[in-house]
Amino acid sequence: MSVRKRTWTTPKGEEKSAWVVDYFDTTGKRRLKTFKLKKAADAFAATASVEVREGVHVADSATVTIEEAGKLWLLSGDAASLERTTLDQRRQHLNLHIKPLAGSTKLTKVTAPWVRSFQDDLRGKGCSAAMVKRITVSLGSILADAQGRGLVVRNAVHELSKARSGTKASDKRSKAKLRVGTDIPTNAEIRAILDAATGRYRPLLVTMIFTGIRASEARGLRWEDVDLVKAALHVRQRADRYGVVGMPKSEAGQRTVPLPPFAVNTLKEWKLACPKSEAGLVFPNTAGNIEYHQNMLQRGLWPTQAAAGLMVPTERKDEDGNPIMAPKYSGFHALRHWYASWCINRKADGGLELTAKAVQSRMGHSSIQVTFDTYGHLFPAQDEGAEMAAAEQALFAVSAT
């Protein structure tokens, strides 16, 4: 690798000069890179020589821009048959955030400091901390796809993630735990919802409350998956918000959940009044097709909370300056959280105690770690005083012998 000065005369007779780095890349191909200043040429030569020696160098001319890599990333998602919602999120991140701020940047220019600067720019646009994190993850995914295509060697997002002071463990420690009465409805609130629920959305709410199934799983639920004799509900498929039917989120998502008598009786009554559906859906819309997610919220969960008195003020004001009220729990996941807490604390309610593994199975979590990470703090605490007293008694019993 050499650094030399090149001088030439333009057609107009002007004398020009530049510094050229002459080297061979990892494939043995000769490369020339021109710089205005010798200092910049020397810095590049020093970095490139190390990268070539380690086999991690990609020349600027051999790579593409972030925008071009993003298009290839979307094609990879299509080829992998990712869910439509996932692909939509990818397009939103790329078109609304990544392209406007960094679309013309070459992949070889993406370093850890550059990623930090990119995140600062996102915050400057008004993106929340959660949104910045999600967009950064998408950027890292773009770089990972480009790595597989040989367009870039290093993934600066992943390197930054590993090097940052806050590890995954500390991220978990700093993450707020789900709180009863804030994220998880109280038992009294659930009773109020059940008392207020009416019409065709009542069976849906009852079922989701007492089984913890996801909204997509409720939309895809068929009568053939509900055994009212054995009081069991089988989760075998789901319908996404676009009405596309597919398998549950993971293999563990295919599960059987017991139905309490209250839910069984509610579903027996609903089966007689349920709109006819060619697909045999339990909770179809009035035309017998897959129900829209927004309808389930706007015509089911939210009005029921309003009737139950579960409304909270928002920061928005009406024409008279009064706070605009909104449902306390904005989504169905609150009902799922309650079901998990109900299963965990069955012994406290006079029922049979469930193991963490049983809770994982009912929730359809892919691993027991997901269950513990989400609901571990809800499991009954061991009576440490009684434990220590028993240990002390055992110790002195041994000494006495």
Explain how this protein is built.
With 401 residues, the protein is of the alpha+beta class. The chain has three domains: 2-57, no CATH class; 66-174, Tyrosine recombinase, N-terminal domain (DNA polymerase, domain 1, Orthogonal Bundle), CATH 1.10.150; 181-401, hpI Integrase, Chain A (Orthogonal Bundle), CATH 1.10.443.10. It is 49% helix and 12% strand. The chain is elongated.
| Percent range for β-strand residues | 5-15%
Number of strands: 10
What is the level-2 CATH architecture name of the largest domain? Orthogonal Bundle
Q: What's the story with the biggest beta sheet?
A: 3 strands, antiparallel
| Helix residue percentage | 40-55%
Task: Give the tags.
single chain, about 400 residues, alpha+beta, DNA polymerase, domain 1, hpI Integrase, Chain A, 3 domains, three-stranded antiparallel sheet, 10 strands
Ordered list of secondary-structure elements with their pairings:
Blueprint: E1 2-9, E2 15-24, E3 30-35, H1 38-54, H2 66-79, H3 84-102, H4 112-124, H5 129-148, H6 156-163, H7 168-174, H8 187-196, H9 202-211, H10 215-219, E4 226-227, E5 232-235, E6 238-239, E7 245-246, E8 255-258, H11 261-273, H12 293-308, E9 311-317, E10 323-327, H13 333-344, H14 356-363, H15 368-375, H16 384-400
Antiparallel strand pairs: 1-2, 2-3, 4-5, 5-8, 6-7, 9-10
Helix pairs in contact: 2-3, 2-5, 3-5, 4-5, 8-12, 9-11, 9-13, 13-14, 14-15
Structure in a nutshell:
By secondary structure, the protein is an alpha+beta fold.
